[in-house]
Amino acid sequence: MSTDLHTTMDPTKMGVGRSIAVLTSGGDAQGMNAAVRATVRVGLYTGAKVFFVHEGGTVIGSARCKDFMCREGRMKAACNLVKLGITNLCVIGGDGSLTGANQFRTDWGGLLADLVKDGKITQEEAKKSSHLNIVGMVGSIDNDFCGTDMTIGTDSALHRIIEVVDAITTTAQSHQRTFILEVMGRHCGYLALVSALSCGADWVFIPEMPPDDGWENHLCRRLADQRSRGSRLNVIIVAEGAITRDGKAITSDQIKKLVTERLGFDTRTTILGHVQRGGTPSAFDRVLGSRMGVEAVMALLEATPDTPACVVSLSGNQAVRLPLMECVQVTKDVTAAMASGRFEDAVKLRGKSFANNWNTYKLLAHINPPDVKSNINVAVMNIGAPCAGMNAAVRAAVRMGIIEGHSMFAVYEGFDGLAQGQIEPISWNTVSGWTGKGGSMLGTKRTLPGKLLEKITLNIAKFNIHALVIIGGFEAYVGGLELLQAREQYEELCIPFVVIPATVSNNVPGSDFSIGADTALNTITTTCDRIKQSAAGTKRRVFIVETMGGYCGYLATMAGLAAGADAAYIYEDKFSIKDLTANVAHLVQKMKTTVKRGLILRNENCNANYTTEFLFNLYSEEGKGIFDCRLNVLGHMQQGGTPTPFDRNFGTKMGAKSILWLTDKLKECCRHGRIFANTSNSACVLGMRKRGLTFQAIADLKDDTDFEHRIPKTQWWLKIRPIMKILAKYDIKLDTSEHVDMEHVLSKKGNHWK
Fold first, then answer.
1. Concatenated DSSP letters for 649-699?
2. The pTM is what?
3. How far apart are CA 425 and CA 407, in angstroms?
4. Is 414 buried (19+), middle (13-18) or exposed (0-12) by CB count in 10 A?
5. Among the listed residues 82, 50, 51, 80, the one whose alpha carbon sits nearest the alpha carbon of residue 65
């Protein structure tokens, strides 16, 4: 559909006269309900009629339907849809469900012809329903569908797994035990792989990449080596579909027998099973399900008879549409590659994200330094407020540096420590177990380097530091700019350095996400769930909740979307007393429905006059006799806790990638055995931009920075704020001018990612 048509179309009229049915099929996955909710509410927003297909867990029921596999069953389904005037189908499920849906669409014309022939429907009814549009959303905890970085439910399943790993870790350390943890993934090792990466497991077994022959000896050597280095526990993660190179199953019991008999270690096995499917969805899955639901409705209403059935996917941070059967084909190609022993191909076909996870895990899992040292000294430091995931980034940077042959140094207490000489060598074993620890093990302060440059340069020279990894929030970014500007005055600062964004506020220019923001978002979302639940027996109550973020409204907005808030007040989206009045009126109307609770989020610095206390007093006064109010300021609990799987994985990838970049940059900057880096591209921010991790010169980001309010001038998440308002049933306009075009999974050369 052309952009011109988009800009002239009223989104509230797009679905008028159309009917949409939504169904969930296959195994249930956390986040499916968020996708259903978004599909229904956005469908209604566009003027369409929306239907549930029950048993189609989720709110509407999820099932694997045998009847649908035969033509007679599909004829019944077609008849039901035609009678209701439904020609748009949104299917949430795995590859089997989506393949069945595509077959249904392919057979549609023939099914209608047979129904007319059998007298089940009239010719007129067949004509009105001559074409069936299908859009899929992938709901699967295994993340086994090619074409999307994350399927709905995967992040929540990782939360369940990591919760168990963290609990096991404490008991295993107490008794010096080896724990074998079996996770789901009959044909896909994503859960096992990312869990291993997120907890620093000693070994992982996945079906896509079986261990080499003789793995039993290698595994026992590795476990024994870890114990000899002082480790009190070993963790082995096994995907349920793990196999040997010749296709034989590798079971948890088999591994336990091996470790017990060969090493004599006290070994325990835990099989997680269906606990991975249960529980409340993570904030990521709620937001993902909501975003995918909105995109699915748009894709259905924009489809023409020539548009192939598509699946709404996630690529990096972007919602994309891909031809459904291309994705199904690549998914089948992975299975075929594994069956024929082409395991390298299987990993590649899983996509870049999977391959990057595998390569990062292989590098960081076990010490394997080169024979020749690089004679390079790299220092790692934390700047600004502490956040969950910082330690994972430090661990990855330290270990990757050692693998590259560098000598790694830890700088304690930020730029203050760099100025005062609080610098020590840091080893492989020092950072063991850091992935799952919250806060900052190195210590961190908000002090900027500007007034400490003399002392900082003396210590850089004294410790012969050749490169810096600066992990932190807005202070890390500003500190990096100050170091860059001081290069003209101090030659010692002519060394390459990289800033890794790590802050709950998610306000560092150059990155869509910061390490720590996901953990904070989950803390807020979980707390909001509990707050709302506290009113389950109390009718007509509105909660006002204040979140962190400085002037950045990311946490308030995303938590509002994840927790189903009625409003989220932020600095970037200006509001007046008229808006506040409208919000109160909206809640008054809501109290007349079956849902008699309200949730209002306020970013801490959204408005100097409309304070949290002011909002509480306003809502309390205007809601007298209709609802009462409660005030909650979440405070520093948002910075604490153990990091989520996302932040552990993100921090690990960022730390590892920063060292690889510095290693290449050091080679570029070496002249006659001396490091001299004075170009702007030798001082970068490593950030997630749309579809991948990119390095951007820190100097180039100045123009996109609001230094007064410590936020980037352009922020991607502002574009999805209207979704929260639409899902809260506000009458607003959704900007449909920026639409998503259909992309392709396969290149022209065959089954390889573009």
1. HHHHHHHHHHHHHHHHHHHHHEETTEE---SGGGEEEEEEETTEEEEEEGG
2. 0.93
3. 7
4. buried
5. 80
Note the CATH number of domain 517-639: 3.40.50.460
CA separation, residue 245 to residues 114, 201, 334, 398, 680 (Å): 49, 21, 15, 33, 48
> pLDDT (tens digit, 9 = 90+) per residue, 652-664?
999 999 999 999 9
Give catalytic residue positions: 142
264 Rama sector, left if φ>0, alpha if ψ -120 to 50, beta otherwise: left
Cross-strand partners of 568: 601
Sequence-distant (6+) residues with CB within 8 A of 703 are 713
How far are the Cα atoms of 168, 223, 225, 366, 643 from residue 231, in angstroms, in the given order? 15, 9, 9, 13, 22
Cα torsion angle, 33, 35, 38, 39, sign: negative
547, 504 contact by CB (below 8 A): no
CA distance 370 to 402: 8
To 5 degrees, how large is the angle CA 273–CA 276–CA 279?
130
pLDDT digits (tens, 9 = 90+) for 672-717: 888 999 999 999 999 998 778 999 999 999 999 999 999 999 999 9
- Rg for the chain (alpha carbons), in Å? 27
Residues of the chain with pLDDT under 70: 1-8, 56-67, 172-173, 735-740, 746-754
Q: Which fold has domain 154-277?
A: Rossmann fold (3.40.50)
Residue 172 has a pLDDT of: 66
Instruction: For residue 680, give the amino acid letter.
Output: S
The HSE-up count of residue 718 (CA atoms within 13 Å, CB side) is: 14
Statement: 367-515+643-712 belongs to CATH 3.40.50.150 = no
How many Cα neighbours within 13 Å face the side chain of 598? 30
CA angle, corner 142, sides to 436 and 271, nearest 5? 65
Identify the architecture of domain 19-150+281-335 in CATH.
3-Layer(aba) Sandwich (3.40)
611 in Cβ contact with 630 (< 8 Å):
no
**How wide is the angle at C-alpha 270 spanned by C-alphas 269 and 275, nearest 5°?**
170
Identify which of 611, 646, 630 has the alpha carbon closest to the alpha carbon of residue 527: 630
Q: Residue 182: CB partners within 8 Å, gap ≥ 6? A: 238, 239, 240, 252, 269, 270, 271, 272
Q: Cα separation of 95 and 287, whole Å?
A: 22
Q: How many CB atoms lie within 10 A of CB 469?
A: 29
